[in-house]
Design a protein that fits this description.
Length: 243
């Protein structure tokens, strides 16, 4: 299969747990080919946090602190937050949704794990949480002034469909805050088995800053800010055209 970003040919890259990954010879994108099946994805998202008792759910306070820093950057770039709508794609424990509400946003969380949705709704009842996948979500024509999507796009078997869904849900002039592992980072271990982000089929696509920016541009999103990172990760904010 040709690269989904630049349509260049690919070459074998790695195999792990019967998952074959290829690397684009043009833009360097690394991804599973073939992608994970629907059945595989269903098994991955069937209660992945053991009834909301593991992972992010064990470090809620530190996540609230981190996300307060991130939401302040979004607020500065938007100019005003009061009454603005924010969607957190992959909302997990709901911490970003809660700090967005504190900042003045009308906040919504979208999360495929039913246990996580129930936990977040109980812990942060002032917000709206919806169970589902981004590619299938419908908000009745509602558009969001900001979308937060942290460590999610690497799970998407079709990066174009996923990014198109993000762009369609953004209001004109809206901002997308996105983070994902960086396979091209200078500190990414040469031995992929030593990199905690290398975990196909859960992570089935791996970006570098250049090809991620190119993907976003294909769907009308322009990178407005990108953080320097000591760890092998990408953190950026992209803007949808106002027109």
């Amino acid at each position: 299969m040709a690269c989904p970003i630049c349509a260049s040919p690919t070459a074998p890259f790695a195999v792990r747990d019967a998952c074959a990954l290829v690397r684009c010879q043009g833009c360097g994108l690394v991804y599973m080919d073939p992608p994970p099946s629907a059945q595989m994805l269903q098994s991955l998202y069937a209660d992945p946090y053991a009834g909301a008792t593991t992972g992010y759910f064990t470090k809620i306070e530190s996540k609230l602190v981190r996300n307060r820093r991130r939401i302040r950057r979004l607020a500065r770039m938007l100019g005003t937050t009061r009454g603005r709508r924010l969607l957190d794609v992959g909302s997990n424990a709901g911490t970003m949704v809660e700090v967005a509400r504190e900042q003045g946003f009308v906040a919504t969380g979208l999360e495929p794990d039913a246990s996580a949705v129930a936990w977040a709704q109980q812990r942060f009842p002032g917000n709206r949480f919806v169970q589902g996948m981004l590619e299938d979500a419908s908000f009745g024509g509602e558009r969001f002034d900001a979308i937060y999507c942290s460590e999610v796009i690497e799970h998407a078997p079709d990066c174009n469909r996923f990014t198109r869904a993000l762009a369609d849900l953004l209001a004109p002039g809206g901002l997308l805050y996105l983070t994902t592992p960086d396979i091209g980072h200078w500190r990414r271990p040469r031995d992929l088995e030593r990199w905690d982000a290398f975990c196909p089929p859960s992570h089935c696509i791996y970006f570098s800053p250049g090809n991620l920016s190119r993907l976003l541009a294909k769907h009308g999103l322009t990178v407005a800010w990108r953080a320097w990172s000591l760890k092998p990760g990408i953190k950026l904010i992209a803007r949808k055209a106002a027109g």
